[in-house]
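Loading example: each entry is read as two labelled lines plus one structure line.
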Amino acid sequence: MDYLDRLENESIYIIREAYKQFGDVAMLWSIGKDSTTLLWLIRKAFYGKIPFPIVHLDTGFKFKEIYEFRDNYAKKWGLNLITYQNEEALKRGVCPHSGKLECCTELKTNALKQVVEKNNIKALYLGIRRDEHGIRAKERFFSVRDSDFEWNYKTQSPEMWDQYKTKAKKEEHFRIHPILSWTEMDIWKYIEREEIPMVDLYLAKNGKRYRSIGCETCCNPVESDADTVAKIIEELATSTVSERSGRAQDKESDYMMQKLRSLGYM
Amino acid sequence: MLKRQLSIVFVGHVDHGKSTLVGRLLYDTKSISEDRIEELRKASSVTDNELEFAFLLDHLREEREQGITIDTTQTFFHTKNREFRIIDAPGHVEFVKNMITGASQADSAVLIVDANEGVQQQTKRHAYILSLLGIKNLIIVINKMDKVDYSQAVYDKVVCDMRALIDQLDLCSQYYVPVSALKGDNICTRSEKMDWYKGNILIEILEQFGESEEKEENFNVFSVQDVYRIGDKRISVGRVEAGKICVGDEITVIQSNQTTNVASIEVFEKEKTEAVCGECIGLTFEDSIFVDRGNVLYSDKSILKLTNKFNASIIWLGEKSLAVNETCTIKCDVQEVRGKIVNIISKINTGSLGAEEKESDKLNYLDAAEVEIETKEKLAIAEFNQLQSLGRFVIVTDSNINAGGIII
């Protein structure tokens, strides 16, 4: 087995383990490269017949390419897709211009709380990676959130030898992170090897491309001529700019990401 | 050709300079992005220090203020010869469980010792835990050489003490290197201040460090994680834990003693006739036998035992003690049973590595002990030295993993 095979097998093991332990699970799909890779792995784990819903939190501010990609592949892969919006907040006029922290909190975090509650989800698969952001490096593969969705990283169980914490109080839920050990480079190498379809926002057009995608209002492209996956891999090998540098959440203030996460953000 | 990615855990006594060393490695290999260095500069000016490398890893605000690492942090970097995944493990006495989380995912370890302070309580404890986790190959870094005027005599003394510790724990190390993480001596550049040191500098050692050998096993083991019904097939999914599984192999379920042959190996949209250790696959069988989660399948000579009594070395991580004969849950691979410790044979003080004279009818926080365990249902196990995945287990009490152990 080569290095990517090892990562793939580790992820599939975690995916199957969480489904066996919790049953009432769902996957959060942002349509970005990481969660689309996770979806690819989940399809492998269940032989193309995913036995649980795939959730897309729709802020209403996503790129149009994201919506097209979502609808196209939801059909192609036969997904049980749940799209969800925090309608109450949208009606109140919450939007990026009214304040970014509030916007992320309402349209993502609170939307997530609502969808978890409504669908009685006990565990949620997420495509976060340790190398993305310092705070994410503290994560476990199986990570408990309390009823307020808070993450008490200090009291986390140790995780060793493929053994995870699997019991929680009734009001708590789990976040499952099957691709936690992957790097941005691993993701792109795997996308290249497996020929995983991706939103083309990642590929350079007119000297710019997106390295990380989310809402159109809060993402900036980076300078790049990488218009194929192979060129992205080449570019990453020499890049000295961090992946999320185009994301407003990380720029706004030193601790915005920490605040968002402690409030239950992914 | 690029060597396989090396995943390394950094351990050692509190304040011996783990985070600083990792930060220095990242900085000197130009693995830190420009915007992160800018963040670092800002943070450093706040506390009026030189570039504080440790800040890179100790990312949370409160850690910056306290100056200690709370949890496991993983970072990735590469040189032109190799990719690395580094796991920075905390040295503070309360955070051993996080160190175990980090170290259990590593295939090599760097143990850091302060040249001035020498071998301390946690140096011993961490070395002991590494031996318990089966990480046998170490790199010993003698740090803060700048604080002892780069003295060879001081270095030799610490190396001598470390060798004794390594021998006592049946670990091995051929790599000892004197460094200053703060000043950058012998990390990625050879130090002019220690011309008496002729060995490789740290980055050279890491680039060449032996890959954990994949053993050729003469026994084949498959562990069943779940059973899926896909179309008209009943697929037993799980992982090859040792050797390999081929279509046509005769296999036996150790729990039921039923024997059949492998009809097919199932992976999504691929044909497969052989799967090796570590692969997560599905199996179908020629005869209709009953297979369920926790079943362990083997072919050829077996090193497995089906038993409800075994001896183990364990380390207790729970804040609440565990008493002899108190019921708990034992998880070994995907098997889960109720059980209890029926006898504490001996206790070891992990800080001094001496025998413990204290009470021996319960396990307290950070106690290490050799124990006898009995379980309600039988477990399919192996000795840790023969098969790691079925030779190690955790103990769960109050919904938390509170101990790790290896079967002896």
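The CA atoms of residues 7 and 98 of chain A lie 41 Å apart.
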